[in-house]
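testing teh design pipeline on a random one, pls ignore if ur not involved
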């Protein structure tokens, strides 16, 4: 990770494009850093619990270093733009709930109108580009209060990521992490092979 990049640049590079949802995530990450007095490069101590899997989560991964692969990003599939950021070292946790859709502000209104149409002429196409720029600007500059509700909460910290033994599945021969392996009689199976076996049994 390049330390010279701004949080915004990190997020755009990680996500692959710039979009209103990503920018909401950038603001949420900044809010967490402000409120929890976090510094960059302390990401081993941070955990993020995210209740959505949309664009904004990538900003939290890029900026806070809470990533799927490190095990300090916990996904709860609630379909809510809510992020809880926990600092293990201080024990503090901030729950951030997004108040509006990314394109829900005044600048977003024209953007949504134009974006929904397929018959844009050249002038309208340019207007759409401008509306999007205005929306980006609005999200990045408007007060946190217009974007989020937030409060400190108590969270029971999840255990740190573990390294588990790898067992060999008797069905496919591939490795499977021990806590995810399923004992079936005297055989050890991975979940997909177990499902197949189960399906096979009920079909008979
Ligand atoms: Zn996006
Ligand atoms: Zn298998």
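output:
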């Amino acid at each position: 990770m390049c330390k010279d990049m701004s949080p915004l640049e990190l997020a755009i590079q990680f996500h692959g494009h710039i979009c209103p949802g990503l920018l909401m995530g950038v603001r949420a990450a900044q809010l967490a850093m402000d409120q929890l007095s976090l510094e960059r490069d302390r990401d081993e101590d941070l955990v993020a619990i995210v209740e959505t899997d949309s664009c904004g989560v990538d900003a939290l991964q890029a900026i806070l270093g809470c990533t799927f692969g490190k095990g300090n990003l916990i996904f709860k599939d609630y379909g809510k733009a809510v992020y809880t950021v926990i600092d293990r070292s201080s024990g503090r946790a901030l729950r951030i709930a997004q108040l509006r859709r990314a394109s829900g502000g005044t600048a977003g209104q024209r953007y949504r109108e134009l974006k929904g149409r397929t018959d844009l002429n050249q002038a309208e196409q340019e207007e759409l580009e401008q509306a999007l720029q205005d929306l980006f600007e609005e999200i990045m500059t408007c007060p946190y209060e217009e974007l989020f509700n937030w409060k400190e909460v108590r969270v029971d910290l999840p255990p740190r990521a573990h390294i588990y033994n790898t067992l060999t599945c008797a069905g496919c021969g591939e490795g499977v992490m021990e806590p995810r392996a399923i004992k079936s009689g005297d055989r050890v199976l991975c979940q997909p092979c177990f499902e197949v076996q189960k399906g096979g049994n009920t079909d008979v």
